[in-house]
Amino acid sequence: MKSAVLKMFGESLQIENLPDPVLGSGEVIVDVMAAPILSYMKEVISGERQYLFDLPQVPGAGAVGRVRAVGPDSTRLSVGDWVLCDPTVRSRDGALIPDITLQGLSARGEGGLKLQKHFRHGSFAEQMRIPTENAIPLGSVNEADVARWCAVSILLVPYGGLLAANLQPGETVLVSGATGNFGSACVALALAMGAGCVVAPGRNELALEDLSRRFGPRVRTVRLSGREDKDCTNMQKAGSGSIDCVLDILPPSASTKPVRAAVMSVRPYGRVVLMGGVGMLGGPDLEIPYPWIMRNCITIRGQWMYPMEAPSKLISLVRAGLLSLNQFEVSTFSLDQANEAVEHAAANAGPFRMTVIQP
């Protein structure tokens, strides 16, 4: 199969023919029809992100494809079915604390590296082998819309955060990092899930204006000043003084200041979910006052990725017409153009923009 292979951090992807994946029990082989490129994939390939990534390897996190072959334990999937390839691979021998690898992207710890050695190659290839449970049925898909269905892979990350926040219809949620790729997707998701109001802080005025234009008065934007007390006050005012939950999804390049301002805007008895990358590459830690957390009964939790049932639930939101994938502007590239596509994704990062490889 034709593949884009990363042999060494900092080098270009090499377009090569690798052996076709061999089917095992508990596995599915998928013909990749479209593979999304993360806006920061260039940083992964260069080594800047410092992800656990055992080389050589085919990158690419997630895909939309058609089932080529299924293992003997599959009871519902059939050859030809359209599926979402969920990159979050969990160990099957550790239900309480599963080891995890993000297929084609990174591993979490030594256990994740063991998984990565088997589910090694990601979606920048003509075929990929995934665990049976990671082949999520999509139903009927118009081939003209295949690339746009890759938006589900982007939406899944903030969806995991909103599920962790237990967002309820009518509540006010603040999305810290709302002008980014994942953050803007989170705004759309929160509205689809019934949020009464979404507070969207950021520094990019054009992106803030775009959110207001797209979603109307249920989105209330806040221009960040860099002064924590002022920004916190302005966020609270935008949320009419009662922000029920905060989700932070800022990238590693962000400082802790906007995170802290957002966290401390939440109301007493409110919830906070941290799922961004702040601090991953060093720098000061997030300092939240102990007395404030305790006396205001604040719930703070971390969330990495999403629970196993999330992909199916998210697809149902799309199928029900509650969440539109048409918000996303898609640029497509062939597999031979993988390096160009990675550069394009980095240069065109932003709200509702997506770069996709179609092998």
Question: Any overview of this molecule?
Answer:
- It contains eleven helices and 18 strands.
- It has two domains: 2-149 and 328-357, Medium-chain alcohol dehydrogenases, catalytic domain (Quinone Oxidoreductase, Chain A, domain 1, Alpha-Beta Complex); 155-302, NAD(P)-binding Rossmann-like Domain (Rossmann fold), CATH 3.40.50.720.
- The radius of gyration is 20 Å and the shape is globular.
- The model has no long low-confidence stretch (mean pLDDT 95).
- It is an alpha/beta fold and 359 residues long.
Total of helices: 11
**Radius of gyration, whole Å:** 20 Å
Helix content: 25-40%
Classify the beta-strand content into a percent band.
Answer: 25-35%
Runs with pLDDT <50, length 5+?
none
CATH homology superfamily of the largest domain: Medium-chain alcohol dehydrogenases, catalytic domain
Average of per-residue pLDDT values: 95
Distance between the termini: 10 Å
Largest sheet: number of strands, sense, barrel closure: 7 strands, mixed
Count of strand segments: 18
CATH architecture of the largest domain: Alpha-Beta Complex
Task: Give the overall shape, derived from the CA principal axes.
Answer: globular
Structural classification: alpha/beta
The tally of structural domains comes to 2
Order of helices and strands: EEEHEEEEEHEEHHEHEHEHEHEHEHEHE
Looking at the structure, the CATH topology of the largest domain is Quinone Oxidoreductase, Chain A, domain 1
